[in-house]
Design goal:
Strand content: 5-15%
Number of domains: 2
Strand order of the largest sheet: 2-1-3
Structural class: mainly alpha
Order of helices and strands: EEHEH
Protein name: B box-type domain-containing protein
Largest sheet: 3 strands, antiparallel
Oligomer: single chain
Organism: Magallana gigas (Pacific oyster)
C-alpha cells in the first residue's frame, strides 16, 4: 500500500510494510523497502526478480493482457488449479467427517433417549400397578 500524499518529495511506500521504499521489482512492478526485498523474493520463488533502485525502475502496464504470457505463468496457473482441487477435496472430506460424527451423535442420543423412554414407561406401569394394589387392599 503506497503512502498517500500530495507533495512530490514525500516517500513512496513499500507494498509489504508501508515504510519508505528505495527499491523496485521491475518484474513484479512493486515498490519495496530494503528490509522487505528478501521477503518478496522468498515468497515468490517461481518468478525471477529484477530489483533496482527506484530511479532505475521500468514501469510496464499492469494489465495481464498487455504482458507476454510465459511458461512460468502457465505453470503457476496449472499448479494453482491443482492446489485448488486438492483444497476442495480436503474441505469436502472434513465436511463429510463432521456430517458422519453429527449423525453418529444424533443416532446415539436417539438410542439413549429411546432407552430412557422405555425405562420411564416401565416405571409408570409399575407405579400404576403399585397404586392399584394399594387401593384394592
Amino acid at each position: 500500500m503506497a503512502i498517500s500524499s500530495t507533495r512530490a518529495q514525500d516517500a513512496i511506500g513499500c507494498l509489504l510494510c508501508d515504510m519508505p521504499s528505495q527499491q523496485f521489482c521491475n518484474n513484479c512492478q512493486i515498490n519495496l523497502c530494503v528490509d522487505c526485498i528478501s521477503i518478496h523474493v522468498d515468497t515468490s520463488k517461481s518468478v525471477s526478480h529484477d530489483i533496482v533502485h527506484l530511479k532505475n525502475k521500468t514501469t510496464r502496464l499492469k494489465y495481464h493482457k498487455a504482458l507476454k504470457v510465459t511458461s512460468e505463468c502457465a505453470k503457476t496457473d496449472s499448479e494453482t488449479e491443482k492446489l485448488r482441487d486438492i483444497w476442495h477435496q480436503e474441505v469436502d472430506a472434513i465436511f463429510n467427517k463432521v456430517g458422519s460424527v453429527a449423525q453418529f451423535f444424533k443416532d446415539y442420543k436417539l438410542a439413549a433417549l429411546t432407552t430412557e423412554q422405555s425405562k420411564i414407561k416401565k416405571l409408570v406401569q409399575d407405579s400404576i400397578h403399585t397404586v392399584r394394589k394399594t387401593n384394592s387392599c
